[in-house]
């Protein structure tokens, strides 16, 4: 079972929220500097709203990486044992 810490979830949630706000086009009349400040303030206030999605994304990523690692380990064992190799017929 994967163990994901609260700091990881918070960082991922903050990133997801910031990305969503930036893509949304919120605060179009503000200067870039003021818009960035407003977005950072919103992220600070509301990152927790994205926490469930962030936790699920981290778990999905961990599980995908685990499957890749297991697949690679299995292939490495096959190569080391000669499994799946056919004789070439050359002598």
Can you tell me about this structure?
By secondary structure, this protein is mainly α. It has one domain (6-74). Helix content is 71%, strand content 0%. The protein has 3 helices and no strands. The protein has helices at residues 6-24, 32-46, 51-81. α1 (6-24) packs across α3 (51-81). The longest helix has 31 residues, at 51-81. The radius of gyration is 23 Å and the shape is elongated. The model has no long low-confidence stretch (mean pLDDT 84).
Task: Sum this structure up briefly.
Helix content is 71%, strand content 0%.
Q: How many domains?
A: 1
- Measured between the Cα atoms of the first and last residue, the distance is 49 Å
What is the overall number of helices?
A: 3
Task: Give the % helix.
Answer: over 70%
Which term fits the overall shape? elongated
**Spans of at least 5 consecutive residues with low confidence:** none
Topology as H/E string? Answer: HHH
| Rg calc | 23 Å
Largest sheet: none
User: Mean of residue pLDDT?
Assistant: 84
How much strand?
under 5%
Q: Find the count of extended strands (DSSP E, 2+ residues).
A: 0
Structural class: mainly alpha
């Amino acid at each position: 079972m994967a163990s994901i810490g609260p700091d990881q979830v918070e960082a991922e949630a903050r990133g997801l929220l910031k990305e969503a706000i930036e893509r949304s086009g919120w605060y179009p009349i503000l200067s870039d500097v003021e818009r960035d400040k407003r977005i950072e303030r919103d992220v600070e206030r509301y990152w927790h709203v994205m926490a469930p999605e962030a936790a699920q994304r981290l778990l999905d990523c961990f599980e995908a990486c685990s499957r890749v690692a297991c697949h690679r380990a299995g292939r490495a064992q096959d190569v080391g044992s000669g499994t799946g190799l056919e004789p070439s017929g050359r002598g």
